[in-house]
Task: structure prediction
Amino acid sequence: MPTAPDPEPVVRPAVCRVAVIGAESTGKTRLCNALAQSLDGASFEEPLRLWVAQYGRSPQADEQREILQQQKQAEDQALMAALRAGKRWVFCDSAPLVTAVYSQFYFQDHSLVSEAVAHHRQAYAHTLLCSNDLGWQQDPGMRDGPQAQAHVQKRLMQVLSDHALPYFSVNGQGEIRAQLAVQFLAGVDFEQR
Result:
């Protein structure tokens, strides 16, 4: 009697990239740093923040694609560094999808969305959406106010929905956010074994 073939082994990437997204002042950087520390992962400084520090202003419409490309490059560099260091996770402070949504909001430019969505599908194992429940905080050159925050968050959620991109919503104050994210990632990691 023939025997059934062994099931195919589950192939898991050596390093999982996690997109940590949300509008301005939603705690993305803080969450990336906390997760990198808790899960012995890697994170990197948001390319938009570096750009604003270098040029002393927000990028204009014709500079949005450059920001999107810099985000991809920063992710790839962090991924290679994580592989060399034997780390399991890379926590990406924002994502090209956020750049595309900001480009829509500020410049009515929808040209970056398809590229950003394609990257999102291909690059990330998981997406964490930071809720805008922390209260808006000023950061000159980087943030425009609570109204902009609310509009961008709504658009970002719409793009996730329109393109059926799965995400886990992270909310709450203080360490609760990181704890929720760690529990989610630990549960997903366990299920994939």
Notes: Confidence is low (pLDDT under 50) at residues 189-193. The first strand starts at residue 16 and ends at 21.
